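hey so u asked for the seq, here:
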Amino acid sequence: MTTEIIYQADIIPDIELIISLYEDAGLKRPINDKDRIRRMFSNSNLVVTAWHNDVLAGVSRAMADYGYWCYLADLAVRTAYQGKGVGRRLIDETRRRAGEDCMLVLLSAPSALTYYPGVGLRNLNNAFALDRQA
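ran it, structure tokens below
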């Protein structure tokens, strides 16, 4: 890559760019429902993006209370940028912005179970969920 990746916080990219990124990265999200994607991002209070020129290379979408916890809801990196440290940097930027006194937690896609320990996250066995109704 000839130019550096630029990381920005708290901007919401165009919905079409987000959907394209999710499709490319294989992230299972309701990409056929633009309004739902828009709600997901507008109700998240910590969004970090990775840009290579005008290409949305990656995104971290999180909710944080900035005092105790930060839930990392989405981490997506475009295929061409995977394995280049973009995901790790998005996690680092999210944690830095949430604050060092916040615990970062996430639910992993089955395909990423081996990725997260490699970037310093530990596996937790104490999570519970209620499935979506729709």
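The first strand starts at residue 6 and ends at 9. Strands lie at 6-9, 46-52, 55-64, 69-77, 103-106.
lmk if thats what u needed
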